[in-house]
C-alpha cells in the first residue's frame, strides 16, 4: 500500500517574511512615485544650469570644455557635458532623468533650447 506524503505548508515565519517583503515593495514603489517629479525637476534644473554655464564658459570665454566644470556649484558631479563645435552648443545630461542643450548665438550669448514637457 502506497502512502502519500503530506504536502509541506509554509509556516507562520515564512508567511510573515512574505508579507514583510510585499510591504517593503509597496513602500518602495510609493516612495519612487512620490519623489519622481521633484527628482526629475531637480535633474532638469541641474542639466539646464550645467548647459548654460558650460556654453558660456566654452563659447563666450573661449575656455576648453574640461575647465568649465570648475564653474559648477558643489554637488553637480553627476552632470555630464558634451559639445558640438559645428553647432556651437553644449549639452548637459543628468543620467536617465534629463538632458538640456544651450546654443551660442552671436549678440545673445548662450541660450537654452526650449524645455519639453
Distinctive features:
4-stranded antiparallel sheet; 117 residues; alpha+beta
Q: How are the elements arranged and paired?
A:
Blueprint: H1 12-60, E1 80-84, E2 89-94, E3 98-105, E4 109-112
Antiparallel strand pairs: 1-2, 2-3, 3-4
Please give a structural write-up.
This protein has 117 residues and is an alpha+beta fold. It contains 1 helix and 4 strands; from the N terminus they run αββββ. It has one helix spanning 12-60; strands spanning 80-84, 89-94, 98-105, 109-112. The protein has a 4-stranded antiparallel β-sheet with strand order 1-2-3-4. The longest helix is centred in the N-terminal third of the chain and has 49 residues, at 12-60. The model has no long low-confidence stretch (mean pLDDT 87).
Number of domains: 1
* Rg calculated over all Cα atoms: 25 Å
**Beta-strand percentage range:** 15-25%
Task: Output the number of helix runs.
Answer: 1
Shape: rod-shaped
Helix fraction by DSSP (H/I, runs of at least 4): 40-55%
- Structural class computed from helices and strand pairing: alpha+beta
The end-to-end distance, rounded to whole angstroms, is: 72 Å
Largest sheet: 4 strands, antiparallel
* Mean pLDDT reading: 87
Spatial order of the strands forming the largest sheet: 1-2-3-4
Residue runs with pLDDT of under 50 for 5 or more positions: none
Order of helices and strands: HEEEE
Total E-strand runs: 4
Amino acid at each position: 500500500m502506497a502512502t502519500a506524503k503530506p504536502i509541506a505548508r509554509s509556516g507562520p515565519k515564512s508567511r510573515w517574511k512574505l508579507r514583510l517583503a510585499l510591504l517593503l515593495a509597496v513602500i518602495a514603489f510609493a516612495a519612487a512615485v512620490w519623489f519622481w517629479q521633484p527628482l526629475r525637476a531637480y535633474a532638469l534644473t541641474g542639466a539646464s544650469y550645467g548647459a548654460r554655464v558650460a556654453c558660456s564658459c566654452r563659447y563666450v570665454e573661449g575656455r576648453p570644455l574640461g575647465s568649465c566644470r570648475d564653474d559648477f556649484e558643489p554637488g553637480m558631479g553627476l552632470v555630464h557635458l558634451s559639445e558640438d563645435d559645428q553647432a556651437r552648443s553644449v549639452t548637459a545630461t543628468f543620467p536617465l532623468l534629463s538632458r538640456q542643450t544651450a546654443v551660442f548665438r552671436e549678440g545673445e550669448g548662450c541660450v537654452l533650447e526650449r524645455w519639453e514637457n
